[in-house]
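Sat 14:20. Reprocessing the chain from the morning session after the first attempt stalled halfway. Input below, unchanged.
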Amino acid sequence: MTTAPTTQRARAVTRYRLFWPAAVLAGLLLANLAFTPDFFAVHLKDGHLYGSTIDILHFGAPLILVSLGMTLVIATGGIDLSVGSTVAIAGALACLHISEAADPASLGTVLGAVAIALGTAVLLGVANGVLVARVGVQPIIATLILMVAGRGVAQLITDGQIITITSEPYKLIGGGYWLTMPFAILLSGMVALLTALLTRSTALGLLLESVGGNPVASRLVGIRAMRLVGLVYVFSALCAAVAGLMVSSNVSAADGNNAGLWIELDAILAVVIGGTSLNGGRFSIGGTVLGALIIQTLSTTVYTIGIPPETTLVFKAFVVITVCLIQSPNFRAKLARRGAGRRSGVRPGRPATTTTNREVGA
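Finished this time. Tokens:
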């Protein structure tokens, strides 16, 4: 008697947008227990929290930030391949300013470095927005220009060297602690919360989805589509710049060649895993955060299991493809139809033959 309602409730839960990303993340976390029995253990030492789960949140904070900006860009039907270069440029500018300052450890020097990095990010975002919204260049081409040129600019800033610094205030951004938690976790969580509030508690999210779903219709009803598109590219650049500050702060150095390398691909994967369509339109901030945590947990799991470095990317790609297939409603529907066909003895794609049909044919 209760089987049908239970089945219906189960189907309703699995149709929820965040169910599959959350289920995959939980599965990856639980899989680590087989290799690390105290994986979920969290310790308090010297007023700081330590543990594997804390490390996942800590090291995943830059990816979460970049993915948040990428989500809004993709929601408008665009793409931003320049975020990795923006990460490198922001970190290089901040570290260069601190290294050349008379007092690298002063708060004023650090605030100046942060302002320079964020200001430059705004200019980079405006450049992308103008090319896409005003000039009409395809987003993948417009941002590919900065992706290539920006990496060269970052290396010019660092003169092809790794700039090392010693500054405790700057160290706080990516490697420090506040209220027992890594400051990077608190910062990325605050940005994610503000992004969710702005896009879901106001009309901004609906406007972005309208521009991404049907840009022509959105302009006809009076939505300033070009301005919104330009703003999301600026927001994406700002998120990437903060991520760059985190990365360089955590290691107290700026590497123009390797900082943020391929983070744009991980961000796109995180957005897709979170349920946002690359065609634009509907998006999910919560899904993006879960997607970024899946990517970071997967990286942690790879190192925990001890998979050889040369096969890490192959393993990562296989898991990501599997996750995307599990999330696909069409793929699950095909599996369900195939399973139903096998149970009934009917081959998929071929209609059942009944006695009535044979009699009519006779």
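Residues 352-362 have pLDDT under 50 and may be disordered.
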